[in-house]
Write the structure tokens for this entry.
Amino acid sequence: MIDLQHISQEYKTSDGQSTFYACKDVNIHINKGDIFGIIGRSGAGKSTLVRCINLLNRPTSGKVIVDGKDLTAMNIADLRKMRREIGMIFQHFNLLSSRTVYDNIALPLELAGVSKSEIQKKVEPLIELVGLSEHKHKYPSQLSGGQKQRVGIARALSSDPKILLSDEATSALDPETTQATLELLKEINQKLGLTIVMITHEMDVVKQICNKVVVMERGQIVESGTVLDVFRDPKHEVTQALLGSVLAARELPPRIVERLREQLKTRKPQDKPIHLLRLTFVGTHTTDPVISEACRLFNLDFNILLGQVDDIQGQSYGTLTITLTGNKENYLQSLEFIRSKQIKVEELNHVL
Ligand SMILES: Nc1ncnc2c1ncn2[C@@H]1O[C@H](COP(=O)(O)OP(=O)(O)O)[C@@H](O)[C@H]1O
Ligand SMILES: [Mg+2]
């Protein structure tokens, strides 16, 4: 659906003395129906990149292929036609304050020369879809942030786009309104089969609605994959930082480490070894039955030290830090068993 090939965007630095790359050799493939997340810190190059998809930014080099057509090679007329298939929503809504809800949504159609009656046929159902029927004659200043964004969404949908670009569309909204807006976008994705590209700096947004994600830093992609995979095993330091609170429960608090060290010190030679593990799981498996089964099968004892379970798109996701006590051979067999249940196992004895 969307293929970004070797996209680079070079800008002059603010002093005008030299240049830098806001995007450097970025390659992304987005499938039809994806809700594709592009996440990164402020200044990473996300907006620059997303504006290349509709050529609001013409990249210094690289190709933008949408639906098999190379936008970078198109003449203005074809490009204009193509742009109608790509809607966009923004952090600050970009509504015209002198126009009502209805007239804001109608604007792109007016500009395209669509007749009044056709416009009405198009706009009324859109107002309904985004839940603003009671507000259609109001002006932007009379609306809440969430309502303004709904106008933005309806306006973006007015030309029947196949793709919706969203640049930090929920960043100015409170958490509850963010939630409702994300639900609306998900509904649109499912009902209209729209492909959505979500730019955000919030992992929560990615977690709630995206199926794939790339992480950007200094104009480059540093990590990519399905959302479940990236959450299960974030490799890059930026991804880990963005996952912040989700990952907080992965680090053992010092007092627990201390207690374990004490326990190890006071062990008698005949005591069975203690193994410290972190388990990460995604999906329908909950770890509890797996761990109890492993302990039963391999004659081990377990103790849960720390854990957190979260929800990503209806799938449970979590980490659990445990100790397993038992002889080495049994322990190694239990690791194999646990891993065979699609649970990631990390051995942590080195921290003790
Ligand atoms: N038109 C421009 N001219 C010069 N520098 C720019 C321009 N647009 C963005 N930049 C710079 O490019 C870098 C990436 O910006 P941007 O794409 O807006 O990042 P993000 O959306 O990830 O916060 C920043 O350092 C920004 O200051
Ligand atoms: Mg931005």
User: Anything to note?
Assistant: The mean pLDDT is 92. The CA atoms of residues 88 and 165 lie 5 Å apart.
